[in-house]
Amino acid sequence: MGIFSNVICPISNVKINSYVSRLTVFMNAILIVLFLLTGNPLFMWVVAIDYGIRALWNPQFSPLRWGAAQLVEIARLPEKLTDQAPKMFASRVGFLFAAFSVLFFLMSPIIGAIVAGILLVFTILDSVFDFCVGCLTYQYIVLPLFQERGDLPS
C-alpha cells in the first residue's frame, strides 16, 4: 500500500467492534446524502449531534451507534475488534465538518453542501473501504504540529 503502510494513528487500550463503528459511519453517510438531495438541514443536524455525542461525550449514548449495534447483533456479525482512538479522532473531525456544514448552510447553502460533500467522501472511505482519513490527518497535520511544539497528543 506504499505511503499508507507507515501511517501512524492515535492509539488507546480501548477496543471497539469495527462492524458497529463502520455501520454507524455508513448511517451518517446516508443522512448526509439525504441532506444533499433534499437540502433539509435537519439531516446534518442529526449527523452533527451524533458525531458530537461520540466525539465529545460518550460513544455509548450515540443513537446511530446504538442502531448499528442492534443491526450487527441481528445480522450475527462476528465481533471484529479495532482500536477506539482513531475512531474517536475521526469522530471529532466528523463533528467539526458536520457542525461547519450546518453553520455554513445557514449563510450559504452551496458552501454548506460542499462541506457536507467532503464529509461524505470521508464517511464512504471509512465505512465502505475501511480507509481512515483521520489517520492521514493525524499523521501529516496533527502529529507534525505537536512535534514542533514538543508535546504529543494522547
Secondary-structure element pattern, one letter each: EHHHEHHH
What proportion of the residues is helical, as a percent range? Answer: over 70%
Structural class: mainly alpha
On the 0-100 scale, what is the average pLDDT?
87
Oligomer: single chain
Strand content: under 5%
Number of strands: 2
Structure description:
The protein contains six helices and two strands. The chain is mainly alpha-helical and 154 residues long. It has one domain. The mean pLDDT is 87.
Offer a concise description of the structure.
The chain contains 6 helices and 2 strands, in the order E-H-H-H-E-H-H-H. The protein is mainly alpha-helical.
List keywords for this structure.
two-stranded antiparallel sheet, 6 helices, 2 strands
List the helices and strands and how they pair.
Elements (H helix, E strand, L loop, with lengths): L14 E3 H21 L2 H17 L5 H12 L6 E3 H24 L1 H21 L3 H17 L5
Antiparallel strand pairs: 1-2
